[in-house]
Prior knowledge:
Blueprint: H1 3-24, H2 37-62, H3 72-96, H4 124-140, H5 144-172, H6 174-182
Amino acid sequence: MNDKLVVFSYYAYFALFLLVEFVFTRTRLGSGAKVTREDRRSLLFFFVAPFVGMFLWMMLVSRDRVPANPSWPLWILGYAVGLAGFAIRILAKRTLGRFFTVRLQLEKDHEVVDQGIYARIRHPLYLGFMLEWMAPPLILGSPAGFLFVTLPILVGVLVRIPREEELLVEGLGEKYRSYMGRTKRLIPGVW
C-alpha cells in the first residue's frame, strides 16, 4: 500500500471527523454555567486523552517503536467503521436536537427521545464516537493504536453511561425506566 496515500487518508479522516463534530452537527455544552467535576472528566476522556494518545502513538510509529502495517483490507475496514460512526453521530445528534449537550444535564422541558436511532439503542452518540476512534488504528494497520486512542474512549463511555442513566431516571422517572426496559445501551439486542 502506498505510504503517501495512507498518510493523506489518515489526515483526511481527521478532517472529516472535525467537520462531522463541529460543522455538520452542532456541539452544545449545555445551559449550566458552572463547570463540574463530571464536565472535566468528560473533557479528559472524550477529547484530551484520545488526542494525547494519538500524539504518543504517532510519535512511537514514526520512530518504528510501534508497528504500522497498513493494508487495503484494514484501510477499507477502518474507513467503513469511521464512516458508520460519523453517520450514527449525525443521526443521533439531529434526533436529540436541543436535548443534546456535552454536559450530563437535563434541559428545560426535557423528554425521553425514543424515535429514530434511539428506538433501538439508548446511547448511539457513544457508539458512534467509539466507532470514530476505532477507525484510525485500522486505517494505519496498527493494533497498538487501540491502546493509545480507542481505549480511553471506551473507558470514558463505560464510566459515563451509568451516570447519565442515573440522571435520566432521576429526572424523567418511569418514562425513562420504561425506555430502558425496551432498548439496549449500545448494541441492539445485545447490551
